[in-house]
Amino acid sequence: MIAKKLTVHAIAVSFLLFASALPATLHAQKIKVGYWTSGFSLGFGAVMEQQKFAEKEGLDVEWVKFAEVNGPTRAIVTNSIDLAFAAPSTNSMAIAADGVPVKIVLATQIAEAQVVVLDNSPIKSVAELKGKKIGMSPAGSATHALATAIFDQNFNIKPSDFTVVPGNEARLAQFLSQREIDAAVIRSVTIAQMDEVKLRYLAPVVDEWKKLTKGNAAPILAVTIVHNDYLAKNAQAVAKFIAATRKVVEYGSKNKARVAELLQKVANMNSTDARAYADQWDGAYMATFEPQDISSLKRMHEIVKVEGGIKKDPPESAFDAGAYSLSKKIK
Hints:
The protein has 331 residues and is an alpha/beta fold. It has helices at 2-20, 39-51, 53-56, 71-77, 89-97, 142-155, 169-177, 188-193, 205-213, 228-233, 235-254, 256-266, 271-279, 281-284, 291-306, 322-327, and strands spanning 29-36, 59-66, 83-88, 102-110, 114-118, 133-136, 163-166, 183-186, 199-204, 220-227, 285-288.
C-alpha cells in the first residue's frame, strides 16, 4: 500500500514538473501582425520573423505581409489584423482622425531620406526642381508627406509645381538611373546600393525637417498601430510585441553581419546590397514612445494638415503610451 502511494505521488510530481517545462508557445497569446514587405519594413520584418523575437516573448504570431505601403493600415480599418508595425505615420494619424478605432503605440522608423539627382544633371539645387519630375514614395506615405511639405515651406515649391512619380525604393532608383525622372527622394540605404551610379545630394530630409520645425526632433517615418479591440483585451501581448521590437533594434545594431546574411536569405539580396542595407540600421530604426516622440508626430500632423493632406485631428486618445510603459518592465 505504501509503495502504491509513493508511486502515485511520484507520478503527480512528475506531471507537475512536466507541465512546468512545457514550451511557452503552448500558452502563447495570439496576435495577427501585418507589415509592408519593402523599404525598411522588409529588413526589420525579416530579422524579427527569422529570429523569432516575438515568439520568444510568448506570442503566437500570424504574419500577414502586404506588397503595398498602405496595405497594413487598410487591414487595420477592417480589423483583418490586430497590429501593424512600420505603418506610415501620417496615414496612421489620418485614419485615427477619421474615427477608425486604432491606437498609435510606438515610433519605429526615422524618416531618413535624401533629395538627389544624377551627378551630371544640370539641376544644382532644390529650387530648380520646379516643373520637374520627382520620384518619391506614393501618396499616403510619411516620406511623401514630409517631402512635399519641405518643398513647399523651405523652398516655395508647391505640389502643383512638380510632377510626382510614385514608386518603391527599387523603382525610384531605376527611374533615376534611366533618366525617367529628374530627381528622387530616396533613402541612404538605396543610395548605398547604387554604387555604380554617381549622384549629387541636394538636401537631407531630416535636416530640412528640423529647419522647417525649428527643432531637433527627427521626423518619424513609421509607427506601430493596434486595433482598439485587441489592445483593450490584450495590453500585455502588445507590450510583449513592443519589447520584442526594442530587442530587434538592439540586435540589428550589434549584429549587422547577421542582418546582412538574413537579407540575402529572405530578400535574395546580393552580399554587397545586403551589407549596405544592414549598415544603415542605426539611422533608420527606433523603438520608443516617449513624450518627445508623440510631440514629433503631432507636429508632423500639423505640418501635413496645412499642406492639405489631412483635414481632421486625431483624438488625444489615439496616442497611447500605456503598452510602451508596460514593455519597459520586460527585460
